[in-house]
Amino acid sequence: MLETSTHLEYRLPAEFRRLFEGKIYKHRDPSQGDFVAMHLFEDLVTIERSSKLIEAAIHRKDRVLNVQNKRRGVAARRGDGTFGEIIPGEAPMTDSGYLVARGPIATVEIGIEVKILAKAMIKQIDRVINDLRNQAAQFKRGGGNPICVALVGINRAESTVGYEGDRPFPTTGKQGFLHPVQEAPEAERRLRADAAPEFDEFLVLRFRATNAPPYPFEWVDYNETRLDYAAALARISARYQQRF
After folding, report:
1. Which of 52, 122, 130, 161 could serve as 211's disulfide partner, Cβ 3.0–4.6 Å?
2. Residue 5 has what pLDDT?
3. What is the structure's pLDDT at 72?
4. Are 85 and 57 in contact (CB under 8 A)?
5. In which region does residue 40 sit, left (phi positive, over 0), alpha (psi from -120 to 50) or beta (all else)?
6. Contact yes or no for 171/117 (Cβ under 8 A)
7. Under a CB-based contact definition with an 8 Å cutoff, are residues 128 and 154 in contact?
8. Is the Cβ–Cβ distance between 118 and 16 less than 8 Å?
């Protein structure tokens, strides 16, 4: 599908695309989810649907993106993106090209977990579901009523290649090495049934990436992805306006 639009172009889908396009995708790099997640907060500011969010994050800067993905004094696992009240006395850090400042946080008001299923989906689906459910619970530890968001990328390519170190493992279509397009429908069904109810927003990003030269990437339906993401941003903004 032609991926052009006269509508607002969002940062998160663009950064998600850059994980794959023109280079090898390394699934074991945990920093990738962190980097993608932080752009959702930029998009929330850009759409300007919550005056409370704009005032807190841009004008006062007393709400920030957590620089370490953990809260002081609360034993909780890191999420891919946490946003909340900065610890009193700490100075927010602003990076060039970004609107939302960073710093250590005392509370979580918005928590994001990112998962990407590129291959071998059914083999890992139980672990992914458990990780998502556990992360939603972790966001809520220490009190409060955080907005919990899951972003799940699901590959629907006809074939793809995984890497362990520099060693490639292409899919074959046979049991144990099924192509992404063979596994994606069941993976999405199970995620929606068993993980989605734990989150305020559960967004599936459907894409195609072979992870083989020249490393192409395409959205299954770019316009649908854009609309779903924009609608999620509007709902998150509305929830923030109501809760905080």
Report:
1. 161
2. 47
3. 44
4. no
5. alpha
6. no
7. no
8. no
Q: Is the peptide bond before 30 cis (omega within 30 degrees of 0)?
A: no
Q: How many angstroms separate the CA atoms of 15 and 39, rounded?
A: 8
What gap in Å lies between CA 49 and CA 178, rounded to an integer?
A: 42
Domain definitions of the chain by residue range: 11-243
Q: CA 197 to CA 200: how far, in whole Å?
A: 8
Average pLDDT for runs of 10 along the chain of length 244: 62 96 87 90 96 96 80 48 94 92 93 95 96 94 90 98 86 91 98 98 98 97 96 98 95
- How far, in Å, CA of 5 to CA of 138, rounded? 38
Burial of residue 56, with CB atoms counted within 10 A of its CB: 0-12 exposed, 13-18 middle, 19 or more buried: buried
Please state whether beta strands 63-71 and 102-105 pair in parallel, antiparallel, or not at all (unpaired). parallel
- Copy the structure tokens of residue 3: 């991926």
Dist. CA 3–CA 222, nearest whole Å: 6
Among positive and negative, which fits the CA dihedral 74, 76, 78, 79? negative
Model pTM greater than 0.70? yes
Phi, psi angle pair for 168, to nearest 5°: -85, 145
